[in-house]
């Protein structure tokens, strides 16, 4: 295991708790990822110490979830979540327990966790505590609910989305009894906040086997109970048919653009405004940021252009984000290299370097790069209608991109003087 340094840094916290007479262990996803030799992110700790006792031992702390026994401790420039061993009662809203009871038994605490691969604990000496055969499931690449899967999903319905997300992220199979329970309890998702669903769905998109995650998402009918997507099952199926599972998706915003591109293609490519409006409605329903919406629309625009045009022109490259261009072209190129016939049929041969080289040939990349500005036009021409200034700048911008005139102040003013009749309202 080459990724244990995060546990080494946090080990003094467990030693402090042990020396004070309390049990303490590393728990959860960090232990799982250590055993899988994956990057470690947040290291969490579970302990028999009550919250007040943790607070006394670690004066530098934040009470982020005191009612549920969680204290965020600041130690050596890092923050660590320390939670008291606990059990939970019934869940009226399929998310939060009606009552949390602190216990002194690690097994009781681990029993409330979602999947066996996440119900592992470890001490600083890397001794694993495994009550539910999580290590065997890791070895077998299986996602299995702890105990009765129906109970686990009724406690927190989001665990069903986590299950299909882990299938994508880890490239694991879901155990048959767990998969049946997801299908039978899928309707619980209607009670789960869309923001929580979005987090899991976005992680699913960028997993190492996103095809597998989407297959489970459709097979269990989870799609029917998440906002906005119930009518799009055929689009997901189409997307799976049109893409290779050998090519990962670079980010979640591109994933949604790819999804809406397939919706646009299925609809006969007739109404660009309609598909753009669908993106806006979807991002609003899923409470995404304005930036996410903007990025999805930009990626979608590039995909639609590439599917309709034989090759890029300077004018069509102008104003686009080069990183987004390279990302889309890279995905198309990878799909074609993987032998995906649909991408070969729909898109002409993609070469990322060719697009990058062509983009670099642009004389300007935005209006800010133009060698003159509105003040120059006022000073040299002083048009009667000041609204014409913007039209003049736009006219010159197009001329420079088309390489009809060089981007030089004197040349631009001369070009404007000789072509004034092509600009309205001057």
Automatic annotation (TrEMBL):
EC code(s) of this entry: 2.7.7.72
EC class (word): transferase
Residues given in the record as Mg(2+) binding sites: 42, 44
InterPro entries: Bact_CCA-adding_enz_type3_sf, CCA-adding_enz_C, CCA-adding_enz_firmicutes, NT_sf, PolA_pol_head_dom, PolyA_RNA-bd
Example GO BP: tRNA 3'-terminal CCA addition
Domain Poly A polymerase head, first and last residues per copy: 24-144
UniProt binding sites for ATP: 29, 32, 113, 156, 159, 162, 165
Residue sites binding CTP per the record: 29, 32, 113, 156, 159, 162, 165
Reaction(s) catalysed by this chain's protein: a tRNA precursor + 2 CTP + ATP = a tRNA with a 3' CCA end + 3 diphosphate; a tRNA with a 3' CCA end + 2 CTP + ATP = a tRNA with a 3' CCACCA end + 3 diphosphate
Cited Pfam families: PolyA_pol, PolyA_pol_RNAbd, tRNA_NucTran2_2
Keyword Cytoplasm applies: no
Domain called tRNA nucleotidyltransferase/poly(A) polymerase RNA and SrmB- binding: residue spans: 171-231
Keywords: ATP-binding, Magnesium, Metal-binding, Nucleotide-binding, Nucleotidyltransferase, RNA repair, RNA-binding, Transferase, tRNA processing
One GO MF term: tRNA binding
Taxonomic superkingdom: Bacteria
Stretches assigned to the CCA-adding enzyme C-terminal domain: 276-415
Cofactors named for this entry: Mg(2+)
Matching HAMAP family: CCA_bact_type3
Subunit record text: Homodimer.
Record's function text: Catalyzes the addition and repair of the essential 3'-terminal CCA sequence in tRNAs without using a nucleic acid template. Adds these three nucleotides in the order of C, C, and A to the tRNA nucleotide-73, using CTP and ATP as substrates and producing inorganic pyrophosphate. tRNA 3'-terminal CCA addition is required both for tRNA processing and repair. Also involved in tRNA surveillance by mediating tandem CCA addition to generate a CCACCA at the 3' terminus of unstable tRNAs. While stable tRNAs receive only 3'-terminal CCA, unstable tRNAs are marked with CCACCA and rapidly degraded.
Family note: Belongs to the tRNA nucleotidyltransferase/poly(A) polymerase family. Bacterial CCA-adding enzyme type 3 subfamily.
Miscellaneous comment in the UniProt entry for this protein: A single active site specifically recognizes both ATP and CTP and is responsible for their addition.
Protein name, entry field: CCA-adding enzyme
Species, as recorded: Aerococcus viridans
């Amino acid at each position: 295991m080459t990724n244990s340094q995060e546990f080494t840094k946090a080990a003094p916290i467990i030693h402090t708790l042990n020396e004070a007479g309390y049990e303490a262990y590393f728990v959860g996803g960090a232990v799982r990822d250590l055993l899988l030799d994956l990057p470690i992110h947040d290291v969490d700790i579970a302990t028999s110490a009550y919250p007040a006792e943790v607070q006394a031992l670690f004066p530098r702390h934040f009470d982020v979830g005191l009612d549920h026994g969680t204290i965020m401790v600041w130690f050596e420039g890092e923050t660590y979540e320390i939670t008291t061993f606990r059990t939970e009662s019934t869940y009226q809203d399929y998310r939060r327990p009606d009552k949390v009871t602190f216990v002194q038994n690690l097994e009781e605490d681990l029993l409330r966790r979602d999947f066996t691969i996440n119900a592992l604990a470890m001490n600083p000496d890397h001794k694993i505590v495994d009550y539910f055969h999580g290590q065997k499931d890791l070895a077998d690449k299986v996602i299995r609910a702890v105990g009765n899967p129906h109970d686990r999903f009724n406690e927190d319905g989001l665990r069903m989305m986590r299950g299909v997300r882990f299938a994508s992220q880890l490239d694991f199979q879901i155990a048959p009894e767990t998969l049946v329970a997801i299908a039978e309890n899928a309707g619980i998702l209607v009670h789960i906040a869309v923001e929580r669903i979005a987090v899991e769905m976005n992680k699913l998109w960028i997993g190492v086997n996103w095809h597998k995650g989407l297959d489970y998402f459709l097979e269990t009918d989870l799609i029917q109970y998440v906002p906005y997507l119930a009518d799009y099952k055929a689009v997901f199926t189409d997307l799976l048919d049109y893409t290779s599972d050998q090519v990962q998706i670079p980010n979640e915003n591109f994933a949604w653009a790819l999804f809406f591109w397939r919706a646009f293609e299925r609809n006969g490519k007739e109404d660009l405004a309609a598909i753009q409006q669908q993106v806006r409605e979807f991002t609003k329903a899923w409470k995404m940021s304005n930036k996410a919406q903007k990025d999805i629309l930009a990626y979608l625009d590039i995909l639609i252009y590439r599917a309709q045009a034989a090759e890029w022109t300077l004018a069509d490259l102008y104003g686009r984000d080069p990183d987004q261009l390279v990302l889309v072209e890279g995905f198309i190129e990878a799909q074609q290299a993987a032998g995906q016939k649909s991408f070969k049929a729909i898109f002409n041969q993609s070469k990322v370097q060719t697009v990058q080289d062509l983009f670099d040939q642009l004389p300007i990349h935005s209006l800010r790069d133009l060698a003159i500005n509105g003040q120059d036009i006022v000073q040299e021409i002083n048009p009667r209608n000041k609204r014409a200034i913007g039209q003049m700048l736009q006219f010159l911008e197009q001329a420079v991109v088309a390489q009809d005139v060089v981007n030089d102040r004197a040349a631009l003013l001369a070009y404007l003087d000789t072509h004034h009749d092509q600009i309205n309202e001057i």
